[in-house]
Structure formats: structure tokens, C-alpha cells
Design goal:
The protein contains eight helices and seven strands; from the N terminus they run E-H-E-H-E-H-E-H-E-H-E-H-H-H-E. With about 250 residues, it is α/β, with parallel strands linked by helices. The protein has one domain (about 10-190, about 220-240): Rossmann fold (3-Layer(aba) Sandwich), CATH 3.40.50.720. The chain has a seven-stranded parallel sheet with strand order 3-2-1-4-5-6-7, with helices on both faces. Helix 1 links the parallel strand 1 and strand 2 (about 30-35). Helix 1 runs parallel beside helix 2 (about 40-50) and helix 4 packs parallel to helix 5. Bound molecules: nicotinamide-adenine-dinucleotide (NAD). Nicotinamide-adenine-dinucleotide binds near residues 13, 19, 39 and 194.
């Protein structure tokens, strides 16, 4: 018996990093996973890895900034599998690491569009579908510790992740009585392509500085976020909604 047997779960940003690791864990726990991303080759690789492991997954090209793209994958999935039990809204980008005076306005817009409007598009379409289902549903989005505290040099990323936390709490309140739970995970530093882009593969100086903020003194593996997300997406967390849960090696504490 898996935590997520018989469940159909949509994962955005599942081509790499946290999304890929989470998709693999969800499948190991018995779910059928629909991966939605813009990196097609990597998305197909995630599907292959899952199939090699005996799981069921499929990939769809979906840009989360495009409402119609998101609506289509939600509707197609529900039509084929009769329901969407869960969603992991995880697609995100990092944006430039500069202070506000140097922050380009177009980058501000781009990061908000993917990280916040993207999650808005997903949640809106998912709620619309879940309200039609007998058993409601379960939504988890990826925020960040940058959604819980300030982080100099990342204005748009930080604002977008605070936005995801606010959106999560608000929608959780709106549908708590309708059988739909809405939560967020807030990762600290996780070993993914995004972290490598921010630090440079070999740049131990930036990594050492980052580790200075982490009581556990290590960077996490993506699967450590995946395990938390799988639990939030399962019935084991049945009394939790509106929570922004840090998974951060003690940073926020
Ligand atoms: N790595 C970290 O340390 C860390 C910490 C806190 C939060 N996060 C968050 O975790 C999530 C996953 O990041 P990651 O570290 O795995 O990075 P990643 O770059 O490996 O993965 C991000 C995924 O999102 C996809 N994506 C980007 N724009 C998209 C769009 N418009 N539509 C659909 N898919 C899109 C990318 O193609 C990629 O597969 C992000 O929301 C990120 O902000 C990461």
C-alpha cells in the first residue's frame, strides 16, 4: 500500500530538480503523475525514470504563465482519469541576484508572471475542477523560505514567494469547507539546477555563505522536499490547510 494509491496528481515544473524528485516519489507512493513543464526533453526523461521504476507518468508541454495551457491540461487530465486528486504547483524561476535599484523592470514582471501568476493560473483551474468532484482535492505549491523572510538581492523572487504564501492561505480559507486543502512547502537551499545557476557549480564561496544560514549545515536533496510534498498531498495530513511549511534544515527557526 502506498500513501497515494489510485490518485492522479498534476506536477508543474516536473522536468528537473524538486519537481522531478517529487514526481518520482509520488509515483513510488502509488500515484499516476501528469508532468507539466516547458523543458520537453527533460520532462520525457522524468517520465522514463518513473517508468523504469514501475510507475505511471506522462508529460505535457505547459507554460504555467498561459492560462489556456493550464486549463487544457487540467481539463484533459480530468476527462481521461475522471478526476484530479492532487496538484503540486512547483514551476518557478530565480531571476537576477541584484538590489532593487539595479533590478530591471522586465525581470520583475517575468519572475512574478511565472512564480505567482503561474501558481494563480494553476490553483484557479484546479479548484474549478475539484469543486465538481465528490471528494474535493488537495493542492500543494512550492513557495520558499524566501516567502517567509526577507532575502537581500532577490526583490521579485522574494515578493513572488510571499505572494504564493498569501495566495495559499487565502484560497485555503475560501474552500476549506468544500473538501479542498491548499498548502505550501517552503524549501531552504536544495541541490537543483536552479541552485547551481545561482551559485555556479564550483563556487564554494557562495555555497559556504549560504550554509552559514542553515543550522543543519548542509544543502538538502530534492527528494527531501518531495517526501514532505507527498505527505502534504496524502490523506495523512488530513487536518492541515493554509499552511506554509518550512523544509529548511532549521533556517526559519
Ligand atoms: N533549489 C532551491 O534551493 C529552492 C529553494 C526554495 C524554493 N525553490 C523553488 O522550488 C521550485 C523548483 O525549483 P528547482 O530548484 O527544482 O529548480 P529547477 O530549475 O530545477 O526546476 C524548475 C522547473 O520549472 C520549470 N519551469 C520554469 N518556467 C516554467 C513555465 N513558465 N511553465 C512551466 N514550467 C516552468 C523549469 O523548466 C524546470 O523544470 C521553484 O518554484 C523554486 O522557486 C527552490
Amino acid at each position: 500500500m502506498g500513501l497515494l494509491d489510485e490518485k492522479t496528481i498534476l506536477v508543474t515544473g516536473g522536468s528537473t530538480g524538486i519537481g522531478r524528485a517529487t514526481a518520482q516519489i509520488l509515483c513510488r507512493e502509488g500515484a499516476r503523475v501528469i508532468i507539466a513543464d516547458v523543458q520537453d526533453k527533460e520532462g520525457q526523461e522524468t517520465v522514463s525514470l518513473i517508468k523504469e521504476d514501475g510507475g505511471i507518468a506522462e508529460y505535457h508541454h505547459v507554460d504555467v504563465t498561459q492560462y489556456q495551457d493550464v486549463r487544457r491540461v487540467v481539463q484533459d487530465t480530468a476527462a481521461r482519469y475522471t478526476k484530479i486528486d492532487g496538484a503540486f504547483n512547483n514551476a518557478g524561476i530565480e531571476g537576477p541576484a541584484v538590489k532593487i535599484l539595479d533590478y530591471p523592470a522586465d525581470e520583475w514582471e517575468r519572475v512574478l508572471r511565472v512564480n505567482l501568476t503561474g501558481v494563480f493560473n494553476c490553483i484557479k483551474c484546479q479548484i474549478e475542477q475539484m469543486l465538481e468532484q465528490e471528494k474535493g482535492g488537495n493542492i500543494v505549491s512550492t513557495a520558499s523560505v524566501a516567502g517567509l523572510t526577507g532575502f537581500a538581492g532577490s526583490a521579485s523572487y522574494n515578493a513572488s514567494k510571499h505572494g504564493v504564501v498569501g495566495l495559499t492561505k487565502t484560497v485555503a480559507l475560501e474552500y476549506a469547507s468544500r473538501g479542498i486543502r491548499v498548502n505550501a512547502v517552503c524549501p531552504g537551499f536544495i541541490e537543483t539546477p536552479m541552485l547551481n545557476r545561482l551559485t555556479g557549480d564550483e563556487n564554494n564561496k557562495i555555497r559556504d555563505k549560504m550554509l552559514g544560514r542553515v543550522p543543519m549545515k548542509r544543502i538538502a536533496q530534492p527528494s527531501e522536499i518531495g517526501e514532505a510534498a507527498a505527505w502534504l498531498l496524502s490523506d495523512k495530513s488530513s487536518y492541515m490547510t493554509g499552511v506554509a511549511m518550512p523544509v529548511d534544515g532549521g533556517w526559519i527557526a
